[in-house]
Amino acid sequence: MPLCIGLKSGLIVAGGIALVMGLGACSPLTVLNAVTPSSTYEKSADIAYGDDPRQRLDVYKPQNTNSPAPVVVFFYGGSWNSGKRADYAFVGSALASRGIVTVVADYRLYPQVRYPSFIEDSAAAVAWTNSQIARFGGDAQHIFVMGHSSGAYNASMVALDKRWLAQSGLSPNNIVRGWIGLAGPYDFLPIVNPDVKPVFHFPNSPPDSQPINYALAGSPPALLIAASEDKLVNPQRNTGGMATKLKAAGVPVKEIYYPKPSHVTLIASVVWPFQHLAPVLDDIDQFVKSDGGRIGTDSAKAGNRTTP
After folding, report:
1. Residue 20, class by beta-carbon neighbours within 10 Å (0-12 exposed, 13-18 middle, 19+ buried)?
2. Higher pLDDT, 307 or 236
3. Rounded to 10 degrees, what is the CA torsion of 151, 245, 189, 183?
4. E-state strands within 39-106
5. What pLDDT shows up at residue 5?
6. What confidence category does residue 243 fall into, taking pLDDT thresholds of 50, 70 and 90?
7. Can you tell me the mean pLDDT for 267-281?
8. In whole numbers, what is the pLDDT of the chain averaged over residues?
9. CA distance to 54, 80, 115, 119, 163, per residue, from 112 (Å)
10. What secondary structure does DSSP assign to 176-199, as a single string?
11. Predicted local distance difference test score (pLDDT) of residue 29
12. Number of neighbours of residue 83 by Cβ within 10 angstroms
């Protein structure tokens, strides 16, 4: 299901049909951005982290916050075929409202590139953040990577597979304090989605493309969130499988399943009018502010949660 279709359906269910009607032909992502306040942040846009036009990012610096602030680098979904950072200003605004400096990065997509180029881009965006985010009030010692759907895949590979940050002379163990995956695909071979098959060189999809293979001891702490009835990315195999393997390796993990959001409205729940679906923004805020569970008693406890 395309993200825009799912969000449009969700807006109608959430009682936001007047917004959709009022904004006419605007996309549902535009609707979300239109109802998201810009007063929470200062935006620095169209910053290059590479030479390609797709290698650009935006930084959302919180208003009225003490510096240096924790940082989240966010990667959006779209089956590695679509997406643009401008559509996800609502994520930057939501996280900035909690005092988190947020980087929303574009990356190259199919058919321009295939695996692993989009991971290389994601790692390059994180490397840029590590070296430059202090200029925007961010704390380079507290960088978290986060993604939704295929963006969660990107985030997981940067956090778990050392090959990608190594290209910039870095290691996730040194610069990534934790990673946040929302409805991410971490174990999806053999590929059945026709849109994804060419991205991963089907039928010769490389086994080293699967994040679950890198769930090893010493990996950064993880916050894994999924819609319990996700119809696009199997939450038991992907979120559950990743959590199980990380825990077996001794890695701190918080694993949460929500019954109300769908695959596509899980990320939308960080802003009104979807916040009633699940407290995803609170979960992210707690994970980041607890330094991936390193600070505090309640937030430091790894565990499972399925909410009513």
Report:
1. middle
2. 236
3. -30
4. 41-48, 56-62, 69-75, 101-105
5. 39
6. very high
7. 94
8. 89
9. 10, 10, 11, 14, 22
10. EEEEEEES--S--PSP--TTTGGG
11. 72
12. 22
**Mean pLDDT computed over 217-241:** 98
- The structure tokens listed for 174 are 């040194």
Residue recorded with tokens 């505090």: 296
Predicted local confidence at residue 27, as pLDDT: 61
Q: Let me know: does 85 contact 43? Beta carbons within 8 Å.
A: no
d(CA 84, CA 29): 11
pTM for the whole thing? 0.89
Among candidate residues 124, 130, 132, 129, the one with its CA nearest the CA of residue 165:
124
Q: Which residues contact 155 (CB under 8 A, 6 or more apart)?
A: 73, 75, 122, 145, 146, 147, 179, 180, 181, 184
Residue type, 148: H
Six-digit token string for 172:
């996730």
Kindly provide the b/e burial profile for residues 242-252, where b requires at least 16 CB atoms within 10 angstroms of the residue's own CB: bbebbbeeebb
In 3-state terms the chain splits into helix, strand, coil percentages (rounded to 5) of 40, 20, 45
* pLDDT tens track for 11-24: 444 444 333 333 33
The structure tokens 């988190």 sit at 100
Gap between the Cα atoms of 101 and 92, Å rounded: 8
